[in-house]
């Protein structure tokens, strides 16, 4: 059973996705079914993480028990679809299954008034399949296929409220971006396949010699994945998509975005990891993109009136921190002294920030969804005095806002502090930009808090109450995670983050298929 | 000289199609034309994959009933499998994009991308 875990991680939600439409006309049953499937996947994901941290990289070959095809001459090539799960992949898979579960729980009440819910839950599970496939696979073409699955399911969910024209507008924007990005990924896969005749990432990374065509492939892959993870200058789709998608999907959609970030890291560290000279310039590009992303994102957020749109711009800005952290690590990848001094910690900061950000941004977007559920508006100027009416939502919002601004006892501080410290050692200017961004983040959340929760009560909302229990439960779980991750960052760092960093850095271990070959 | 051009003709066509596709996505204002641009892009990528796998005079990679001269002279099957998968995915993407376009036309009364801009700021 245990050795089939990587395949089950895909098979269970895929089974759920194709059985949910059978529950047409029974929205409650569909919701509970999706909740059950995501709960089972969460269990499988936890097992997978335990297995990978204890036993090292897991290899799963579809249709055979060994990855290689041995020719009579003794030459071995990987020919089948191979799932290669190292600690980094397991880390992303855990975020995906956790957030899909929380999202399904929140959706139970949040979208109960909508129609076509069996399709909604089916797409939610399909999105989960796409993410899990992207982070678990060790095959470039498979990566493309799952990228497309996540892109199609994600954009269909963005356009879910099809009685609103804006939802379709955001949906087609997201779909055009993801279609162009993934077609370009396929093009560069073709370039690599034409040269080396294989699609396995580990095998390719051993062959790559970095001629002109490889450089073009690296450039296209880098640009496409940066586009899909919402980095500046191709960030325009993020605020639209995150604003229009129902708040229960936000956590999963966030993880889908960071699955592209994972692919970006995988390409830089594993696929092209052996190119010793040029990776430091790629690292610099990544760090500078990160700084630009965080700064432009936060300045755009400051002027927003729509509460969810404001938070979506913060999602762009926080992506910048992850790019900066891992970019700093990539810059010093081939300098062992600097890598040990601050590069490894910088990457740990960047990767720790992924899970922290997924937790607190999902929490914040869910509180925005709760405000929308109660007030039917997202305009901050029309809200006011909701703190007394919605105490749990207020607490959840305060925790989330403190975490995103990097205030000490919460989880945002733990990862941001690592990034400040380490990027300062590469170049002080990077750290200064990161800190200014944090201060601006706090400023914009004070604005939201003051206009939505404080102030005189608005007459229209006199009779509103707290949101239903499943929504509160989902928000409180995330708020508790925010505090736990903030109080005990070392546990998470040692158990999840540093293994993930070491897995990215340990190229030799990845190339040998975890010791099978 | 003539031979070189003929051998590389598929790749020249790929480059042209990529240019046309990006031009259409970037500069056309009608949403349907943007969708067509993405389809052209997809055609370019699929043609590229097929052209990679083509070997002159080689046999299709089917082992049953293969003639004896096909031994050691078969085309790689992978690019064709990749292309088939990519075509199927492309159909799904274009269907969803057209569905969005229809819905946008219903709500905005136009397909002009410069006018479909309620989300901004």
TrEMBL record, chain A:
Where in or outside the cell it occurs: the entry states: Cell membrane
Keyword list (alphabetical) reads: Cell membrane, Membrane, Transmembrane, Transmembrane helix, Ubiquinone
Q: Does the keyword Hydrolase apply?
A: no
A Pfam family the protein falls into: Proton_antipo_M
NADH:quinone oxidoreductase/Mrp antiporter transmembrane domain residues are 138-441
Q: Does the keyword Transmembrane helix apply?
A: yes
Q: Where are the transmembrane segments?
A: 6-23, 30-49, 87-108, 120-137, 143-160, 172-196, 208-227, 248-269, 281-303, 315-334, 354-374, 395-414, 426-450, 471-492
Topology term for the membrane: Multi-pass membrane protein
Q: What GO cellular component entries does it have?
A: plasma membrane
Coiled coil location: none
PANTHER family assigned: NA(+)_H(+) ANTIPORTER SUBUNIT D1, NADH DEHYDROGENASE
Which protein are we looking at?
Answer: NADH:ubiquinone oxidoreductase
Which organism was this protein described from?
A: Thermococcus siculi
UniProt lineage: Archaea, Methanobacteriati, Methanobacteriota, Thermococci, Thermococcales
From TrEMBL, chain B:
The species is: Thermococcus siculi
Which Gene3D superfamilies is this protein grouped with?
Answer: 1.10.287.3510
One GO location term (cellular component)? plasma membrane
Pfam families linked: Oxidored_q2 (PF00420)
- This chain belongs to the protein called Cation:proton antiporter
Location relative to the cell:
Cell membrane
Membrane topology is:
Multi-pass membrane protein
Keywords from the UniProt entry: Cell membrane, Membrane, Transmembrane, Transmembrane helix
